[in-house]
Amino acid sequence: EVQLVESGGGLVQAGGSLRLSCATSGFTFGNGAIGWFRQAPGKEREGISCVTPGDGTTYYADSVKGRFTISSDNSKNTVYLQMNSLKPEDTAVYYCAAVPAPFIATMAYEYNYWGQGTQVTISS
């Protein structure tokens, strides 16, 4: 059974940083892709970043490019999202997702497995 567990969310002031973690189990880490999505109240789920751990290819949405960094620790089957220069508009529930194929996936429907989400709140 594939499981994804996010952690690291919280409340920080604008300009601050957080690092989210997505620990995976039961998933062939090196042959897949892990993405990060976020969903704010009343808005659609937004794909913000993706990594293919096998070769390290990454993707960032324009809304987070230059501020967020995705990375993977293949020895721990864990993906991280380092979020810097946070803004109030980054407030959302953040989800990680996995697909068992090594391609950069940016749309929610492309993913097979999802974590439970972690709340990120940025105060102004």
Outline:
With 124 residues, this protein is mainly beta. It has strands spanning 3-7, 10-13, 18-25, 33-39, 46-52, 57-60, 68-73, 78-83, 92-99, 113-114, 118-123.
Helix content: under 10%
Largest sheet: 7 strands, mixed
**C-alpha-based Rg, rounded:** 13 Å
Structural class: mainly beta
Gross morphology is globular
Strand fraction band?
Answer: over 45%
Q: Secondary-structure blueprint of this entry?
A:
Blueprint: E1 3-7, E2 10-13, E3 18-25, E4 33-39, E5 46-52, E6 57-60, E7 68-73, E8 78-83, E9 92-99, E10 113-114, E11 118-123
Parallel strand pairs: 2-11
Antiparallel strand pairs: 1-3, 3-8, 4-5, 4-9, 5-6, 7-8, 9-10, 9-11
Notes on the structure:
By secondary structure, the protein is mainly beta. The protein has no helices and 11 strands. The strands form 2 sheets. Strands 2, 4, 5, 6, 9, 10 and 11 form a 7-stranded mixed sheet that branches. A 4-stranded antiparallel sheet has the order 1-3-8-7, with no helix packed on it. Strand 4 (33-39) and strand 5 form a beta hairpin.
